[in-house]
Amino acid sequence: MTPVRHPDAPAPGELLGAHYGECFGCGGEQPHGLHLQARAGEGVSITAEFTVQPAHQGAPGLAHGGVLATALDETLGSLNWLLRTIAVTGRLETDFVRPVPVGTTLYLEAEVTAVAGRKIYSRATGRVGGPEGPVAVRAEALFIEVQVDHFVNHGRPEEIKAAMSDPDQIRRARAFEVNP
Ligand SMILES: CCCCCCCCCCCC(=O)SCCNC(=O)CCNC(=O)[C@H](O)C(C)(C)COP(=O)(O)OP(=O)(O)OC[C@H]1O[C@@H](n2cnc3c(N)ncnc32)[C@H](O)[C@@H]1OP(=O)(O)O
User: Which residue stretches, if any, does this entry annotate as coiled coil (predicted)?
Assistant: First the structure.
């Protein structure tokens, strides 16, 4: 089925903010996290930026592939905001096309390609040198829609409790919970 942008999705260009402060991908409270900043795009698409820090190295001076996969995963996960669903990564297939040095800003773009029941198919690219620069990484993913219970049942009680007592976190979770 063709993906449908939720009528209450953030407007194109709107900065999405972190879905969780401790998230390694987007949270502001993780000193060595990616601090990835995502914006709503047109249709069911997202743009995001992430600058590779020394803490993200694999080979000397180069980004670790797993960190780049995280950047793709996080950008793809941000598509949740446009569908207003909660979904987790089931499958993530990554191509590493060129090395990404420390200090480089990765310009990411992701879009939902199809939705079938709980299955959300998507793809993403990460470019270097600018939003129109050469592709350094790309991914295809399958996200699976879940209920909030997924996190309550599987997460650690300490973090769940802390998140539930944070009014901002509750507000974000509610925004995802209101489905069409
Ligand atoms: C509060 C705001 C927070 C918002 C939080 C947002 C967080 C975003 C963070 C970034 C994203 C992440 O890294 S999320 C973290 C990484 N991911 C995870 O931890 C997920 C771990 N996996 C799981 O919990 C589970 O396997 C699920 C939930 C993905 C699926 O389990 P399930 O619910 O029992 O569903 P299941 O019946 O198995 O699968 C449903 C359909 O999907 C298909 N399917 C499932 N997995 C796969 C797969 N790997 N490859 C192909 N197909 C698959 C099945 O064949 C089936 O198709 P059919 O028979 O219907 O055709």
Answer: none
Domain that holds residue 103: 37-177
| Residue 174 confidence class, pLDDT cut points 50, 70, 90 | low
Ligand 1 atom nearest to 148, measured from its CA: 1
Asked if the structure places residue 4 within a domain, the reply is no
| Residue owning the nearest CA to atom 29 of ligand 1 | 90
Dist. CA 111–CA 45, nearest whole Å: 4
> What is d(CA 69, CA 147) in angstroms, rounded to the nearest whole number?
24
pLDDT (tens digit per residue) in 46-55: 999 999 999 9
**DSSP track, 31-90:** TTS---EEEE-SSSEEEEEEE--GGGBSSTTBB-HHHHHHHHHHHHHTTHHHHT--EEEE
Domain annotation covers residue 58: yes
| CB 69 less than 6 A from any atom of ligand 1 | no
- For the Cβ of 142 lying below 6 angstroms from any atom of ligand 1, the answer is yes
Structural domain count, the chain: 1
45: in domain: yes
